[in-house]
Amino acid sequence: MKFIFFMGGFSGLMVTGTASYLSDHQPDRILVDASVGCLAGALLFRWFWTVLLGGIRETILQRHAAATATAKSK
Hints:
Blueprint: H1 2-22, H2 27-73
């Protein structure tokens, strides 16, 4: 979970910082934009990871239920 949080933060920092730099903002504004992007990226990656794990868990439970139902019918 930490790895996903860090990767999201780093991605948000780099994307937002680069976009701000390419928009010819002042260095202090670039740092503020990159900081907000870091936080937003980390939270979005964490949310996506939670959704992804929930989907994987749901799939495993459905497959297990189907296998159990097939085993009982034999």
